Amino acid sequence: MTTVLELKQITKTFGKGAAATQAVQPTDLAIAPGEFITLTGPSGSGKTTLLTMMGALQSPTSGAVLLNGQDLAKLSEKQRSKVRFEKYGFILQAANLIPYLNVQEQFKLVDKLSHTDNRAYADQLLTSLGLEEQRDSLPQMLSGGQRQRVAIARALYQQPQIVFADEPTASLDSKRAHQVVQTLNETAKAHQTAVVMVTHDESLFAYTDKVYQVRDGQVSLLATNH
Amino acid sequence: MYLAYHELKSAKARYGLVVITLFLVAYLIYFLTGLAYGLANNNRVGVDQWHAQRVTMSKYADHNLQSSTIIAGQFDRSDLSKNVAPLGLLAGEVNQKSDNTDLDTYVFGINFSSFIKPQLTSGRQARHNNEVVVDQRLGTGQLKLGTKIKINGSSTYYKVVGLTKNNLFGTLPITFTTLGTYNKLRFGSTTVKNMSAVVYKNATDVVKKSGLETTTVQTMVENIPGYTAQNSTFSLMIGALFIIVLFVVGIFMYILTIQNVSVYGVMRAQGISNGTLIRSVLAQSLLLGIIGVGLGLFANQLTVLILPAAMPYTNNTLLVGGFTVGLLAVVVLGSVFSIKRILKIDPLDAIGGAA
């Protein structure tokens, strides 16, 4: 099995000396291309910390996060920023979109920054997510579900290897939540993009390949679908 | 630029306020500069027309032309020439024969064949003691060739034989008389051979005499009563306005940046570089600056058309250009606070807490 992202004995400790708390216990994890995994667990269990370490937003205290075999901690902050821009997609709880850009301008900005023009791909993504009518709308004019679907399109726009989704359905009702995660799953599968999702919502586990339970910084495999 | 433009477009009202503030302050700067330069110019333009390098005055005058008197024995007449010119200065009032209105003037008693003789716009130079050349602004153009005037209540009339322009000293139009007439007006007789100063076209022409002191024309101008005080007042006001611009733009951009911190956090998480965000803020400041300062410049040009001619308002291209560049620089400098804030943004904050 090939892996995109591999965690090797990573730990995260906050604070020093007696006040130190170990947010993540030594963890190994491997994610295959196109694999959809879920991290679940109570608040403060360390799942978001895990996500941010995989997402190159912070480095582990020990151990290594390998993206295509490359240790992220060995990159400069600028290079990590580039990894996030080119290889990763992010879907956050809310406020994923730039408030003063309309839907198609969100994509145009990415084109400008990467000196490319993938307008046709943006249109294709938006159409497949049922957003072709919303292309000229500002984020504030969209419903919560529409906003998260735009965020999915935005996260997938650069054909990343992995999409990180931090409670992407937190602000949605359950019907919308299912639609959004189902769409995320289908679209990611279609593009062979791996997804790491953090969620509390057990009803969403069915859409994912593997579910990991995080408790007191310990990661254990809870369920495997298929 | 793309981000900057769309953000400006989305909050037109907010950014409009900054533009208006910038416009008003820029306009005030240009207006004060025009006045300051105009006033300074009106103090000295008559002297600038000499293109002289040195002036000799009496030592006790302390570089103030108005208090200087060089008496006959102090400077040999034989040392005077075309390029070493005598000058008598006297504050005066001019009356027309037909009109009792007093017109303020400075009398310049000169040798009409020396290099400091005025450039004429019409008529000729004075040849006799009873002839004068006046700046056409004296009496706002009422004085014409052939007009007869009294100076300082003199019993004799002096005939205007020549007109000149841009010959002002201490903001007043100059009346050029012969050195004899100057001595008559000041010391009672044309036979007195006193003068206020000797003006040298070249520094190499200077003749040293005891009791006299030689200085540059610039030093003499700076010692025109009020000239330096006036200039420093204006400079202070203009300097203060630059600082106001710095803070207005700085505080405003900072507030807008703080409002955008969460958006910037998300963008940083998405891998959009600090450089992109900083360029965006700089582009915004510069864009606001160009619009605001541009409007100020435009209003300044309109002002020139509207102001009455008597207003000492002169636009100096170099000053206006320099202040325009300076204003834009200060506007961009104002976004430094914002840039420092942006550099502190942690993309982790975008992901609901680190723990």
Give a quick rundown of the structure.
Chain A has 226 residues and is α/β, with parallel strands linked by helices.
3D architecture notes:
- By secondary structure, chain A is of the alpha/beta class.
- Chain A has a single domain (5-224), classed as P-loop containing nucleotide triphosphate hydrolases (Rossmann fold), CATH 3.40.50.
- Helix content of chain A is 31%, strand content 27%.
- Chain A has six helices and ten strands; from the N terminus they run βββαββαβαααβαβββ.
- In chain A, the strands form two sheets. In chain A, strands 6-7-8-3-9-10 form a six-stranded mixed β-sheet, with helices on both faces.
- In chain A, helix 5 (144-156) runs parallel beside helix 6.
- The longest helix of chain A is centred in the C-terminal third of the chain and has 17 residues, at 174-190.
- Chain B has 355 residues and is α+β, with helices and mostly antiparallel strands.
- Chain B folds into two domains: 2-43 and 228-350, no CATH class; 71-195, no CATH class.
- Chain B is 45% helix and 19% strand.
- Chain B contains nine helices and eleven strands.
- Chain B has helices spanning 2-10, 12-48, 179-187, 217-222, 227-259, 261-269, 274-306, 317-333, 336-343, and strands spanning 54-58, 84-96, 99-110, 120-123, 131-135, 148-151, 158-164, 168-169, 172-178, 197-200, 212-216.
- Chain B has a six-stranded mixed barrel.
- In chain B, strand 8 (168-169) and strand 9 form a beta hairpin.
- The longest helix of chain B has 37 residues, at 12-48.
- Chain B is elongated.
- The two termini of chain B are 36 Å apart.
- The relative contact order of chain B is 0.19.
- The mean pLDDT of chain B is 90.
- The A-B interface holds A 14, 23, 44, 46, 48-49, 51-52, 55, 57-58, 78, 81-86, 88, 90, 92-93, 95-96, 98-101, 105, 108-109, 112-113, 138, 166-167 and B 2-3, 6-7, 9-11, 262-263, 266-273, 276, 347-348, 350-355.
